[in-house]
Write a sequence for this structure.
């Protein structure tokens, strides 16, 4: 996974969509079910009633989804189970999130690949998207016809992938992970190892190499479709906040938590007036941050033993515009409870066991270290120095491989960027000069040029998320060599035609002379059969004296 709270406020991972496949980056969200990626016609909205002139595609990291370019894509036609249909008879989806963001559009069915596992599934093709969903802004002076278009932000990922169970949201697309479980018969569980920068998503269980201590499990709340567990209390440093009713959350839970922090830590910025706790942000130094308390969540595990999940200030204070804000907020899940979200999961390998309805926690090990610190390198596998000759309808794939030179546990699921530096052409099927793709289980990533490229090409390849990795280049030959091959074929064809004409004229002349001779013989006197004295001088034929015999 990529991202992290210190950079993007979320974790995201690459997926492949369609046939031929195109890569998109999606936020990994355990609080929703649906998959959604931006459509080619997607527009940004300031709010649900106010459409801007800013297109989703202008901020795209990996281009946008066009179902007509995929041979395996189909729009979901209106059925009785559809909650809403458009005027064209296509089933629609609508999603709103706790932070106030929203998306909506068409429901489509296509091929989806996550971590090398492929299923056909129904998901959302976003037509309308709030700017907050993609962490975007749209300038008031935006001009869609300017070159390049003027906009004030760039998204860090394309869409969202919900990992919650289908019963949470049965109307807005399939539970992608659930379909993977059914097709590949893997364990109905997954784990998220989340570090400061990036992490690892494991499908079908948990990888214990990412644990620095044994995993402890808490039972999920029986009646909840969310991944919810009950905690029995909160500790702030060594002070137990007994008045917080976490086992039966109410609207006052979050406010009671904040109030007690304000009383006991009023000497710290933003605490005395409670501004920090209610959304105000401050410019804090590392020394000041370390004076804020560590928060502990208390509970009882599946073996009836006490468990304590620690959340230090370096996790719950999140950087925004170079200032620090509180990353803990109230959330309305039928009753208002406290949402710790990624700030509570960061630093842990968390196992979501959907089969046993338990959630496990273990502190992360060094194996879950940020991708930026890994010792890896790129090398070319195939496709370099190929000749772009005329008449070819397809070209060899450009393939690279990531080599693990250090402690990286797997080279699968890593993102690689291909950029056309020189050359008149684009990549297939996005028709873009810059594309990203994801490595397979062998660490290999491939792209292909579109038809009829012109000239020679130089293509740069670099690793995403690791600036220390070497940069490699493909060189493809074209230009004059392609033109000469066409002229050579033309010359050969013309010479062949001339030779045929010449041979035909010679044969015609010879045949004509033979015909004339036969006619002269037939008109002469009767002679002994099969006896002729024929004289040939040059190109003329003469008949000698003919004698008749009895």
């Amino acid at each position: 996974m990529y991202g992290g709270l210190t950079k993007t406020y979320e974790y995201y991972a690459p997926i492949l969509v369609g046939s031929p496949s195109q890569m998109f980056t999606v936020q990994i969200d355990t609080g929703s079910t649906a998959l959604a990626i931006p459509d080619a016609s997607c527009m940004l909205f300031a709010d649900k009633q106010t459409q801007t002139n800013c297109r989703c595609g202008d901020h795209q990291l990996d281009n946008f989804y066009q179902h007509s370019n995929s041979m395996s894509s189909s729009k979901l036609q209106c059925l009785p189970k559809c909650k809403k249909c458009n005027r064209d008879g296509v089933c629609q989806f609508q999603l709103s999130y706790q932070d106030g963001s929203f998306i909506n559009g068409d429901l489509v069915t296509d091929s989806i690949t996550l971590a090398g596992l492929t299923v056909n599934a129904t998901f959302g093709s976003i037509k309308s998207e709030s700017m907050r969903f993609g962490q975007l802004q749209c300038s008031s002076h935006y001009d869609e016809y300017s070159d390049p278009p003027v906009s004030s932000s760039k998204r860090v990922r394309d869409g969202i992938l919900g990992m919650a169970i289908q019963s949470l949201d049965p109307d807005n697309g399939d539970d992608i992970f659930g379909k993977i479980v059914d097709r590949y018969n893997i364990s109905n569980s997954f784990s998220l190892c989340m570090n400061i920068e990036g992490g690892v998503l494991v499908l079908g269980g948990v990888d214990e190499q990412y644990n620095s201590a044994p995993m402890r499990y808490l039972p999920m709340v029986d009646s909840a479709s969310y991944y919810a567990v009950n905690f029995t209390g909160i500790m702030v440093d060594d002070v137990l906040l007994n008045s917080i009713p976490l086992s039966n959350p109410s609207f006052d839970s979050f406010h009671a938590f904040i109030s007690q922090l304000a009383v006991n830590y009023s000497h710290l910025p933003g605490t005395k007036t409670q501004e920090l706790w209610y959304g105000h942000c401050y410019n804090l130094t590392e020394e000041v941050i370390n004076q804020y308390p560590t928060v502990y969540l208390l509970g009882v595990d599946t073996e009836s033993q006490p468990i304590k999940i620690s959340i230090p200030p370096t996790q719950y204070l999140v950087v925004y515009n170079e200032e620090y804000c509180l990353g803990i907020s109230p959330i309305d899940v039928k009753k208002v409870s406290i949402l710790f979200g990624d700030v509570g999961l960061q630093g842990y390998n968390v196992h979501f066991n959907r089969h046993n309805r338990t959630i496990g926690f273990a502190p992360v090990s060094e194996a879950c270290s940020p991708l930026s610190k890994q010792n890896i390198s790129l090398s070319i596998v195939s496709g370099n120095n190929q000749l772009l000759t005329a008449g070819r309808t397809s070209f060899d794939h450009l393939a690279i491989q990531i080599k693990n030179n250090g402690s990286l546990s797997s080279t699968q699921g890593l993102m690689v960027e291909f950029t056309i530096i020189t050359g008149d052409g684009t990549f297939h099927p996005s028709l873009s000069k810059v594309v990203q793709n994801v490595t397979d289980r062998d660490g290999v990533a491939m792209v292909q040029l579109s038809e009829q490229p012109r000239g020679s090409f130089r293509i740069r390849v670099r690793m995403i998320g690791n600036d220390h990795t070497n940069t490699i280049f493909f060189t493809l030959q074209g230009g004059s060599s392609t033109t000469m091959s066409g002229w050579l074929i033309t010359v050969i064809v013309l010479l062949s035609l001339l030779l045929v004409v010449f041979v035909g004229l010679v044969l015609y002349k010879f045949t004509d002379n033979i015909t004339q001779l036969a006619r002269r013989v037939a008109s002469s006197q009767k002679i002994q059969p099969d006896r002729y004295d024929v004289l040939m001088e040059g190109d003329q034929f003469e008949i000698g004296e003919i004698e008749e015999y009895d």
